[in-house]
Amino acid sequence: MLNDTICAISTALKDGAISIVRMSGEDAFSVIREISDLKETVPNRIAYGHILDHDEIIDEVLISCFGKGHSYTCEDMVEINCHGGVYVTKMILNLLLQKGCRLAEPGEFTKRAYLNGRIDLSEADAINDLVKAESAIQARSAIRGLNGSIERLLTPLMDEMKDVLSMIEVNIDYPEYEDEKQMTSDVIKPYLWKWQKQAQEMIEKAERFSLVKDGIDTVIIGKPNVGKSSLTNALLGEERNIVTPVAGTTRDAISSYYNKFGHEFMIVDTAGLRKKAKVTEDLEFYSVLRSIRAIENADVCVLMIDATSGIEAQDMSIFNLIIRNKKGCVIVVNKWDLVPDKTANTMKEFKAAIAKRIAPMSDIPVIFTSATNKQRIMDVLEAAEHVYANYSRRIPTSQLNDAMLPEIENYPPPAWKGKYIKIKYITQLPTPSPSFAFFCNLPQYIRDPYKRFLENKLRSHFDFTGCTVQVYLRQK
Ligand code: GDP
Q: Cα(80) to centroid of ligand 1, in Å?
């Protein structure tokens, strides 16, 4: 055995053109010289060469050598870009094992990067998430985890705490040093408030990060027979036997729960919602409750309507429920294939009709699908991800004030009985859906039209498509 030099196949797709075999450890450079025709290993260069088993050429390859300071693991590392397929790749790996390398355990390259101080634990965690990401939004979130790791956020906070602590200790241990700064409670308190705020921000960030990591809860909701199961089947890419042609016979109110592309899908039939006012049977009552609960627990609700019947009263009551619960919303008009005599304007007209029904919440994405023909089904997920990004957006106070205070100055709230109303600053509230507090001297005199103005201006500066935006006026 060499000096614990590890090796692994990093990529070897069955039909892929190129595979990568990696090696890390003190003997990586000497081993590559032994199994190739490379005369010398120059760090941080890519060299063209051949992998040899005795005199037999195994493959024509590109070999990258990374010196200690410049490699992922902080050790000498070699990457062999060989031809793809499993056979050649395995031959090369076998050669490395014969020369005394050992197979890396899962995640061992990243473990070494961590142990050698190249990355911290949260970055290692983020790398793991990135490798496993199934959707663009998960990958973006993992990248954010990599760039703004918790450790990097914590270190300055901890350093400042240590400084303050040591100044307090100096005060206690050497009371005679009168020149030293006196750490009275008036001096310490602002630090405590600042640290509390910073810690709160970190907790919020971490909570949002884990939400994306664990998947977006997407409820597909609508009347029986509108095509919810067909859409789910089409997205999952497999037949799950959950489709029946007779309305209302598919399932109970909530019966299906699937995970794909970073979404947790739940299918909810809204058969019960129609009769909510006169619910008598126990079963019906619980079905209504569970539908409401599903909406409450969702991040994004995909409301499916039937293109052949248009948006109906029952669809509207579901829509209102989604909005009342302040959830992200996407409207899917399914069975688009059944709409006869479509022209270039049909979609536009349909959209306009929906916008009229759902006004003033007209800023909701509308996607026209045919679950049967798998038409535009991925657009539904993309829209849900976009809405989720808007739903979970956190805008720093400074950015909010920079955008909104000039708007307010241009069009200030009307005075009330000669009293001048001044909005001083704006901050986003720590609620799951976007909500904003406007601090002013006389909040009780600001009327609804002005609140709508504030909401519209927020929407014009920041993307809140598919979400409700709450505006609160608070006393300052
Ligand atoms: P669910 O009750 O909302 O889950 O609806 P299903 O997915 O069970 O679909 C009910 C019926 O509508 C089935 O016969 C489906 O084949 C049919 N269906 C679903 N989506 C479409 C579509 O986009 N076009 C057409 N033509 N039929 C559809």
A: 51
